[in-house]
Amino acid sequence: MSINTIVGQAATGENFYERPKLLNDIWRIIESGSNILLVAPRRVGKTSILFYLSDNPKRGFRPLYLITESVNDENEFFRKLYGHIFELLDGIEKFSQRIKNLVGKNKISEISKSGVKLEDVKLDYYGALIKLFKILDLDGEKLIIMIDEFPETVENIKRDKTETDALRFLQKNRELRHSAIIKEKAQFIYVGSIGLENVVSKMNASSTIDDLHSFGVPPFTEKESRDLILDKILKNSEMQIENEQVRFLLSKIEWLIPFYVQLIMDETYKLYSYEELKKITNEVIERAIDKSIQHKLYFDLWLSRLKTTFKGNEFSFVKSVLNHTSEKDTISSAEIYNYAEGFNITEIYKNIINTLVYDGYINNNDNPKIYHFNSPILKRWWYKYVAN
Ligand SMILES: Nc1ncnc2c1ncn2[C@@H]1O[C@H](COP(=O)(O)OP(=O)(O)OP(=O)(O)O)[C@@H](O)[C@H]1O
Ligand SMILES: [Mg+2]
User: Fold this and answer.
1) Contact (Cβ atoms closer than 8 angstroms) between residue 124 and residue 113
2) 371: three-class secondary structure by DSSP
3) Which ligand approaches the C-alpha of residue 263 most closely?
4) Nearest Cα to 152, choosing from 202, 191, 209?
5) Of ligand 1's atoms, which has the minimum distance to the CA of residue 52?
6) Does residue 256 have its Cβ closer than 6 Å to ligand 1?
7) Phi, psi torsion values for 190, nearest 5 degrees
8) For residue 104, how far is its CA from the centre of ligand 1 (angstroms)?
9) Nearest to residue 257, comparing CAs of 232, 224, 296?
10) Protein residue with its CA nearest to atom 19 in ligand 1
11) pLDDT of 129-181, one tens digit each?
12) Per-residue pLDDT reduced to its tens digit, 320-353
């Protein structure tokens, strides 16, 4: 059999490597009644965790997953949420009739996969949600509403409407999760591949999210990565890798997020089968890494994300900093400042650097004055395809 992995897509079922301590921690926060902000850089495995929570809920909790990446309007956001709640409950036998009874009262004409069709399109969905929760009897169960790519929604509203609208949207969400009616029946997990804290602090609106329990998803440990390779990815495969080569591979990845592990294992397997190799050596792994860097699509998101977040001089600054770091391996605070001066953004450049750290591009863990890429793989991709 070939290897067991789908590169790029959120891991579900058999493919998902469980991190029980981490999942327990999340449940503990949920059970304490808090609303969560799940934070981690791109590709660390946030969506996979949400899917897992969705598929394996604790008794008394009804998880609901929605992704609001493309939403750029407050009412549209609450409409989507409303539609998803309807759909979820409609699919649960004991709630289905209760939900149907509400349809007439709320001017809902049809419930469909795409959400809710309305007779009155101008319906205020925030109000409708509150009303829905008021009359809804969930038998003491609680909805866990997991909103993926939430910070994107905030940014979309800010970009396509105004900053005031984005602020209002954040306030509405705060108001919603604190309303006595909602608190009793629902909790929220907000997730995003960009730091909500950074998005919000740029707007001086930190008070709109300071009630959230911030929970960071760390990268995999070496042991977890090894188990992911040996117990999951290679579980039924005829390709085997010696411990020494696993160690070599992990040392090359350095920043152990499952995405890179999958990607390089996938390329290793391709070499193994195309070239009918008998043994995976360090040299094969080196070649697999070279090949994985050629996947423009997998890495492009790291660049496109920056293009949508930063414009004009800010983007030029970010690009210069990352180009420099990809070429020289490191960049010092003084060099960063020089770039900031050159692009006339000395007022805000620290915030931008914080975003790059937060979103998993660079870190200064070893020395506060020296930054380098988290991932040597991303560094090499950046050097080859962006800097040159
Ligand atoms: N626990 C896990 N076990 C196995 N593979 C995983 C796990 N978590 C994540 N992955 C893999 O890592 C990659 C990224 O996962 P996922 O989409 O969940 O991350 P994300 O943090 O939501 O990414 P993004 O920030 O781009 O939305 C996927 O290819 C997925 O299959
Ligand atoms: Mg995701």
Assistant:
1) no
2) strand
3) 1
4) 191
5) 1
6) no
7) -100, 135
8) 41
9) 224
10) 45
11) 998 898 888 999 999 999 999 999 999 999 999 999 999 999 999 999 999 99
12) 999 999 999 999 999 999 999 999 999 999 999 9
